[in-house]
Amino acid sequence: MTSVTLRPAVFLDRDGVIIENRADYVKSLAEVQFIPGALTALARLARHNLLIVIVTNQSAIGRGIVARETVDAINAYVVGQIVSAGGRVDALYLCPHHPQDGCACRKPAPGMLLEAARDLDIDLAASVMIGDALTDVQAAEAVRVEPILVLTGLGSAQVHWWTPAQNPLLTVPDLAAAVEQILNENRSLTKTPPE
């Protein structure tokens, strides 16, 4: 019987963390705008022995606003740009459901994180979730992943909804600052990406 070695991951929301959030959803490649510094931050993160996993709610599919194929093409473009800039994405999970569908994958439910943990042998307790919404924070906390809230996207508006009675919440200006925080806390990480 072989034992599986679990590895830590950095989970990332897409809209508001890597690319600009839009109130009317990102519906085409023309609407993709990378947040300044995001590609450089992801390239820096890719040099370390952490899995990098995007987990994104895409309710525009369930709302009938955009086709799944279009969202898949947008995601492929985003990942391609990350790779072209020297970064990597080990996996991408999306929830296509309408908020009223009651699915287990739409954040704040932790379904995408749990699925990734099963697929990639992730040590959730040693992992981090970077998001711009309190739903990202709630999904992380549901499975003992450390949340980091960036103030890009929805973060600057939603940070005020977090009450002091709740667990302390680390907030940082953007993805670059979140990556800096992670790498400073994990100085023992090797600078070799996983095979």
Brief summary of the model shown:
The chain is α/β, with parallel strands linked by helices.
Domain module tally: 1
Helix content: 25-40%
In sequence order, what are the helices and strands, one letter per element?
EHEHHEHEHEHEH
Largest sheet: 6 strands, parallel
Beta fraction of the residues? 5-15%
Outline the low-pLDDT stretches.
none
CATH fold field value: Rossmann fold
Structural class: alpha/beta
Label the overall shape: globular
Total helical elements: 7
Distance between the termini: 23 Å
The total beta strand count reads 6
Explain the overall architecture.
This protein is α/β, with parallel strands linked by helices and 195 residues long. The chain has helices at residues 38-46, 59-62, 68-84, 111-120, 134-142, 155-158, 175-185, and strands spanning 9-12, 51-57, 91-95, 128-131, 146-150, 170-172. The chain has a single domain, classed as Rossmann fold (3-Layer(aba) Sandwich). It has seven helices and six strands, in the order E-H-E-H-H-E-H-E-H-E-H-E-H. Helix 5 (134-142) links the parallel strand 4 (128-131) and strand 5 (146-150).
Topology:
Layout: E1 9-12, H1 38-46, E2 51-57, H2 59-62, H3 68-84, E3 91-95, H4 111-120, E4 128-131, H5 134-142, E5 146-150, H6 155-158, E6 170-172, H7 175-185
Parallel strand pairs: 1-2, 1-4, 2-3, 4-5, 5-6
Helix pairs in contact: 1-7
